[in-house]
Amino acid sequence: MINDELIDAAAAVLHPYHVDDRLFGDVASALLTDAGNVYVGVCIDTASGTGFCAEHAAIAAMVTAREYKIAKIVAVWRGDGPLHVVAPCGRCREFIRQIDPSNLDAEVILGKHRTAPLRTLLPETDWASPLD
């Protein structure tokens, strides 16, 4: 699957919805597993901080289907203008890593023609070495 197809899959589930001062579904994510399946999800913003990012929703759908290895992942946002690809936040980067160790090599789509392996977007991922 090429980047444009995964971007389009994410964009297809963008359906912003307002509840009071909160906004649901204004960021969407799509991921491709190593088995070739695509999962999508949207963000849920809550006032109490219990919400989650679109990447979390897509990953939850993947895990529900008993898959854990991500080949590619993307998140998109559209305000009042053009579609934007957004990089995963630090919490999402760490979440992706913890789902399966091989996800350090997952290809994160940063634009139509720009990607990076997750490992290059994370700080040090190894546990600290003992001093003695």
UniProtKB/TrEMBL annotation:
Pfam families: dCMP_cyt_deam_1. Keywords: Hydrolase, Metal-binding, Zinc. GO terms for molecular function: cytidine deaminase activity; identical protein binding; zinc ion binding. One of its GO terms (biological process) is nucleobase-containing small molecule metabolic process. Coiled coil: none annotated. One of its GO terms (cellular component) is cytosol. The keyword Hydrolase applies. The keyword Ribonucleoprotein does not apply. It comes from the Bacteria. Residues 26-101 form the CMP/dCMP-type deaminase domain. Belongs to the cytidine and deoxycytidylate deaminase family. This is Cytidine deaminase. It comes from Kribbella soli.
